[in-house]
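@channel anyone free to eyeball this complex?
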Amino acid sequence: MTKRYHDNLSQGRTVEQKRELVKVLTKETARILNAKEDAVRVLIYEVSKENWGNAGVLGLDM
Amino acid sequence: MTKRYHDNLSQGRTVEQKRELVKVLTKETARILNAKEDAVRVLIYEVSKENWGNAGVLGLDM
Amino acid sequence: MTKRYHDNLSQGRTVEQKRELVKVLTKETARILNAKEDAVRVLIYEVSKENWGNAGVLGLDM
Amino acid sequence: MTKRYHDNLSQGRTVEQKRELVKVLTKETARILNAKEDAVRVLIYEVSKENWGNAGVLGLDM
Amino acid sequence: MTKRYHDNLSQGRTVEQKRELVKVLTKETARILNAKEDAVRVLIYEVSKENWGNAGVLGLDM
Amino acid sequence: MTKRYHDNLSQGRTVEQKRELVKVLTKETARILNAKEDAVRVLIYEVSKENWGNAGVLGLDM
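replying in thread with the prediction:
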């Protein structure tokens, strides 16, 4: 079965950071789970500051 | 463990509504589950009318 | 559109806590978003201690 | 209970494709699961090429 | 990019229903989106009656 | 904001594999995104072979 990551991140990451994240997460997951790299999928959901909250406070207000 | 909400909402809510949603959901969850408020995370995914459907009909066509 | 909550919770909550969580989340969401209660859905995913981690440590080891 | 689909798709699909996807998924699900069509919800998350990766490579670089 | 379905279903479906659901969803999605069938993944999350609620009422109490 | 992973994995991984997965994913994410490790959460959803399908075929039948 495909191993799948959903990363929920704040907006503002560079393409280079996303490129490295996909590469490293895939490599490490395949190593740890003895799986093939082409069975690993990564999905990044970028969330704006007005759409997340921690401990009752909106990101926008932090 | 962190209690986490993913709210799927139609686009068009005000920041003030989101602010209150995060505040109230966090407070009530901590009360009901005897947890600390700083263990509660809220994530809001806004979905446009062309990206959801109920009973076989696209939101755009309702 | 239906407003939908996915609550990720540690295992071990009582049915009574879940009943109250569904009731209160639905009522407060409908109030805050001026929506009807029958447009609100709640889904609870229970996660065992060996299946979540915070700050690099497995729940089981906390 | 509501049957719910979350479709993760690359950006770039037409409204007409989404309309047909919602209609057909709903009809077939209701048939296969002996459920009512109005108990089926479909949510489409569109993901840009810089936010997904297969086998360690970013969509943008494929 | 891989098209991915997350189906949230009440517990109690037969393996035969799941087999047909995976087959039909994959075939129809590939047709509608002009994609290859091997780019389609389906994930089924089964939810017990005490872990979902509609319109403020727990599934268990319906 | 908290960076959050949802890993969808086939059942059958050892606790030791999950422990290492949480540790390595957290460390690498914090490094790549210049974030603190305690802002990283990992959630593992284990899916049985009858609840996932690739290219139209149920995991059970592969």
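from a first look: Chain D has one domain: 3-51.
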